[in-house]
Design a protein that fits this description.
Layout lengths: L10 H21 L4 E3 L1 H4 L8 E7 L8 E9 L2 E5 L5 E3 L9 E9 L8 E6 L6 E5 L5 E3 L10 E7 L8 E6 L7 E5 L7 E3 L1 H4 L7 E7 L8 E6 L5 E5 L5 E3 L11 E8 L8 E7 L13 E5 L5 E3 L1 H4 L10 E4 L8 E4 L2 E2 L4 E2 L3 E5 L5 E3 L1 H4 L8 E7 L8 E6 L5 E5 L1
Antiparallel strand pairs: 1-30, 2-3, 3-4, 3-6, 4-5, 6-7, 7-8, 8-9, 10-11, 11-12, 12-13, 14-15, 15-16, 16-17, 18-19, 19-20, 20-21, 22-23, 23-26, 24-25, 26-27, 28-29, 29-30
Length: 407
Amino acid sequence: MLLSLSGKLYLPTLVLFLSVAVVFTACSQNVETKYFKDVTATHMPLDAEAHALDVALADVNGDGHLDAILALEAQPNRLYLNDGTGKFSWKKGAFVEKKHDTEHVRLADFNKDGYIDAIFVAEDDHNHEFYLGDGKGNFKDVSERLLTKSEANGLDIGDVNGDGLVDVLIGNSGSTKQNFLWINDSENPGYFIDYTKSGLPAVPTETQSIKLADLNDDGYLDLIAGNEVPPNRLFFNDGKGRFTEQAEKLELTVPLHTREVLTFDVNGDGHPDILFTNLTSNAGAFEKDPTARLLINDGTGNFKDETAKRMPKQDYSTYAGAIIDFNHDGFPDIILSAIKIPPFEAMQVQALQNDGKGNFKQVTNEVIPTSTVGRSWGIAIGDVNNDGKLDLFIGQWGTQARLLLGK
């Protein structure tokens, strides 16, 4: 310290003041941009070592606020209840307190009682889970209703046969390469009938993501399978839950290791387009191009890869993504999780802005707080604090799950 002979403090006081100011400014920049504020420290249960691979938002206790259900790897799945201001508390014991290799979660009213239920799929230990909600934030384990075990990653739900009930599609890999289609039993809602042989072609897959969407504008949910072993696959639905492959309609210009499939109208022509988020490898060497691939729909379900002219090149891998209009200009933008592979290094969550014509540019530094650095995974979008703006709930692998409030 620099002191005068009288013992009074001079320069250190100025240095201390400036240091505090710099730290305050850095912290402010670290957690907030003009678009999002990271409120994790004050709004989220803190667990810096959790492996939250997927997140789904829904009001499970009837208070009008979006709660969060987390699918965790190597830990029991979790329920976080929302107090209405976006502050979440962990309701322990909501799901079976066993550690599974859970990959994905989807929420819907499967048994037509008016309450949100939950289905999870697991990979390594093949232990899928199914819970019925009571509308008060409690869940009953009815996993015995699920028809079989498998090494699963992909999961999506929707009414594929037009009976008004939510059906289940499971994407499998490993020794179980056939994907599953389970039809909700119209005579006993909340139970399932195996419709795999009747509904899905017997093609081997290594599926990591399943997505249901009406891609040819016929009113029926079609299917895209994003696979870790090429190729990705497109199937059209006849309206009765019978899917036929349309390989010639899906332009695949490079081999992909896909981890998530997203569908949205990129260019405002009224037709859903496809975004594949990809890895170079699963925490291994640099093998495949991890750039997110954008395929544009011509209006009849033919998809052309226009990545080169519409998307920025990327060298990071993406396990998940989400679509949100973060700058409120009426055009859908893209949020991407990001991990540097090799060596599986934590990165900042990424943001790509749409110019209104379906062309995207990298705008991460102005949109995403640097506090989001981590091994990010599944991302859920919803208005958790009831201010009319969409927020980001970001799952992460071995790092703190984060909540970013939209501004």
